[in-house]
Amino acid sequence: MSRINSKIRNLNKFTLTNIESYSIVIVAYIVISLLNNFGKINNSISGQLVPICAYIVMAISLNLTVGFLGELSLGHAGFMSVGAFAGVITASCLQDVIPSDILRLIVSIISGGIFAGIAGLIIGIPVLRLRGDYLAIVTLAFGEIIKNIINCLYVGIDTSGLHIGMTSIEALGMTNGRIILNGPQGAVGITKLSSFTAGVILIIFALFVVLNFVNSKTGRAVTAIRDNAIAAESVGIGLTRYKLTAFIVSAVLAGMAGVLYAMNFSSIVAKKFDFNTSILILVFVVLGGMGNIVGTIIATTVLYMLPELLREYADYRMLIYAIVLILVMLLTNSEKTKQIKEQIMLKLTRNKKYEEREGGNNV
Amino acid sequence: MTFISNLISGISLGSVYAIIALGYTMVYGIAKMLNFAHGDVIMVGAYISFCASTYLHLPPIVSIVIAMIVCTILGIVIEGLAYRPLRRASSLAVLITAIGVSYFLQNAALLIWGSTPMTFSSVVGFDSIPLFDGGLIVTSESIVTVIACIIIMICLTLFTQKTRIGKGMRAVSEDKDAAELMGINVNVTISITFAIGSALAAIAGVLLCSAYPILTPTTGSMPGIKAFTAAVFGGIGSIPGAMLGGILLGIIEIFSKSYISTELSDAIVFAVLILVLLIKPTGLLGKKMTEKV
Amino acid sequence: MSKMIPVPSNSIIPERDSDKKPILETLHLGIDFGGLTAVDDFTLTVGRTEIAGLIGPNGAGKTTVFNLLTNVYQPTRGTIMLDGVSTAKKTVAQVSRMGIARTFQNIRLFSNMSVIDNVKVGLHNSIDQSLFSAITHCFGYRKSEKKSREEALELLDFFSMADWADFQAGSLPYGAQRRLEIVRALATHPGIILLDEPAAGMNPSETAELMENIRKIRDTFHIAVMLIEHDMNLVMNICEGICVLDHGKIIAKGTPDEIKSNPKVIEAYLGKKKEA
User: Among the four residues A149, A281, C120, C274, which has the most C-beta atoms within 10 Å?
Assistant: First the structure.
């Protein structure tokens, strides 16, 4: 019994990984803020800070679906889109009610999260019944459907309240109101509310939610389903319920990221959140290492900045990006490099026995 | 009369989707991978044919053949360089690599041909056929597309059922390891599949751009995604399924464009796909998957 | 031994269970796969604390029976009563919560998770933790995690595996993986545990240890054990009742001694079909 007690007293190692993740974000925040204050960061990069934060939150959220739940989602930008437009409409409606910018941003982010969560529920129920590639294609389809519908949405506000239509802005029958969402032209006249600080706080919030979620009863059930669905069912875990929970949590975070992103620009169109955006985020997650949150954050930052850094090569930068992407995948996944990696791991594990529970960056 | 005219253009568009979907479905059936770069091979095929006929003034047939040859080589090279080293890697790693290849092709095309849209001149030599005193006009492109689609379908079916290589392909798609033990060269078989798929993509590219003559480096991506949807719709891995899925998808798209809403037509197409998958989780003609406990 | 049971032919319940309701009863259970009858007319009763064996040549349908009992396959015919309640139209997870646990012929662990997390997943339905406390890590999170960790370690210690608690499950040696699967199944607090070839791939000393463990499970947790096994030494030694399956049908039921001398069983194993 004494042996058991000593084991219980052992400091949970997950807490350490968590502290590591939080501190990386906070240190990066302090360093970047200082550099920014001293004007060491050029405009093109400082303008990217909020989008990077939004994409990091997106990647953390997608990591929950792809890395921990083990389901390939190709429509994650759809949730970002739902959140973004719900947040923009909320902020616009509350412009006169809540004068404080910060408070209005918080309320909008929460509203975006809730709407994205509802979308996650509606999409998750049918989607999560399917398997593998079929699930992937249906998430892709939903992402496109969301994009299409928002593209046809006209929303305006006047003294009599909110007007929503799908044909044209005139059809809303507003007398002298404000247009919020103008079909294919997207949301216009957004008051910029997002800031780098808000972005970092949202990242920390997303980290808090995902890391806690993973190390809980529900998170274990989700990971168990990924590892072996039949065995998970055999110990009494209802598949649909837990898959859906993870999917919705992931959608809520994506929606919040969408609000952060949209509130950084004066206008935003639904086309921004298309299939390519979903793919971009998926690339961040896979290159960062599925189930590896710190890796995801680093990969997102590096890959998002890469085209910026390659700016001097202008026309060739996206080509270089593509080549880098292919080479990285070949290097990290091909048979030969795997053998070499295994040999190194073998040497390491002799000293350091089975400590990495999350398995590092294995894809 | 508009109904019949819509139906014809639906079938014609659907035939293009079907030819592209065949490439997706064959590659998926054999290599078990979603080849997202397939749509961009279509674009390359269209550009090659465009260059051959515009700059070299070659006759349409020759330009198509050149496009097919270039795409075939391209397909084999892509498979050999990017996908073969990942044969045993996770499907997600292969998917991301395919996306990388897709980016590569798009941006290479952007560098070579620029972003200005080019106007593709139709490869079809004869005029449209007016029926019922001009009440119904059947475009020459639709006729050629539908005929090409039927010929390809028949040839592919015969090829996979009757020839040695075709049987080898079916064996590899059933069980790669067992096929290898039976003396089938899996790598060669997969290369051949990519070659056929890419050659079909070239044909599809030319036909697509003959009907919708705007050519840009991203021309292939949306038809690519839709054809992929069509392959899943019909049951991915099944050749008749890809055919059926492609044609149905084309008809649904044209009908929703003309009767419901142009803006929402894509949404409707995808909504129908979702409905079908909910009722038949492996597509219309897909095989049922069960995991042995 | 069947003298106290109202339907003697169905049951091989040991005498100590005979006054109690059986934990598992099946009646004329059968399943067809596309016209092929895999299991037919499977009628069996297992007592509260019985160790029952299910044996038969390869392909006799033993694992199919386990899949039927856990609702992985929906039976074409017949009924299953678990602790007196029918399991018809229930999901696999629901049946598990009703008190049936199992291991798998080809090990199905959560191999990327730690040993203790595997057991905690088994404890899933007895952990009292809401989604809210899971996300905030407050409001009873620590208490419920500590409790589940203690219980998981206790279970692991029972099979002398507590030292391996933080190892990755997939990295364990084969025999230990089989044991961990049993621990995980026990963590669901079942009334009956089904073991599918628990001794497969084990050496004689490991098998001996396993036999002891199976008895220990029954004596400590007071639950029934039903096992599929090809190791006749193990089956004859620890099983109180044995059911022999051939071509999807029960050909004999009884005590080990009765089975050993049953001519039908001998024929099934040694007769026209040669099977180990």
Answer: A281
Higher pLDDT, A309 or B105: B105
**Residue C240 resides in a domain:** yes
Report the distance separating Cα A202 and Cα A195, nearest Å.
Answer: 11
Query: In chain C, which residues have pLDDT < 70?
Result: 1-15, 18, 271-276
Q: Are C147 and C232 contained in the same domain?
A: no
CB contacts, 8 Å: A218 with chain C: 129, 131, 134
Predicted TM-score (pTM) of the model is 0.87
DSSP annotation string for chain B: -HHHHHHHHHHHHHHHHHHHHHHHHHHHHHH----TTHHHHHHHHHHHHHHHHHTS---HHHHHHHHHHHHHHHHHHHIIIIIGGGTTS-HHHHHHHHHHHHHHHHHHHHHHH-SS-EEPPP---SPPEEETTTTEEE-HHHHHHHHHHHHHHHHHHHHHHHSHHHHHHHHHHH-HHHHHHTT--HHHHHHHHHHHHHHHHHHHHHHHHHHS-EE-TTTTHHHHHHHHHHHHHH-TT-HHHHHHHHHHHHHHHHHIIIII-STTHHHHHHHHHHHHHHHSTT-SSPPPP----
Tell me whether residues A137 and B228 touch, CB distance under 8 A: yes
- Domain end point (choices C173, C188, C203): C188
Q: Where are the domains of chain A?
A: 48-293
Digit-coded pLDDT (tens) for B115-145? 888 888 777 767 677 777 666 777 888 888 8
Judge if C199 and C272 occupy the same domain.
Answer: yes
Q: Which domain holds residue C135?
A: 110-188
Number of domains in chain C: 2
Asked if residues A26 and A197 have their Cβ atoms less than 8 Å apart, the reply is: no
Pair C64, C116 in one domain? no
CA distance C38 to B287: 22
pLDDT tier for residue A85 given thresholds of 50, 70 and 90: very high
Domain end (from C141, C172, C188): C188
Do C138 and C48 lie in a common domain?
no
C66, C28: one domain? yes
Same domain, yes or no: C206 and C250? yes
CATH number for the domain spanning C243: value is 3.40.50.300
Same domain, C38 and C168: no
Shortest distance between the Cα of C9 and any Cα of chain B, in A, equals 30
pLDDT for residue C10? 58
Same domain, C274 and C235: yes
pLDDT tens profile C30-63: 999 888 899 999 999 999 899 999 999 888 899 9
Which of B90, B288, B291, B293 to mutate to test binding with chain C, by most C CBs within 10 Å of its CB? B293
Write down the mean pLDDT value for chain B: 87
Residue of C nearest to B291 (CA): C72
C105, part of any domain: no
Choose the closest CB to A232 out of C91, C102, C121: C121
The reply to whether C9 falls in a domain is yes
Which residue type does B208 have? Answer: L
Question: Domain for residue C14, yes or no?
Answer: yes
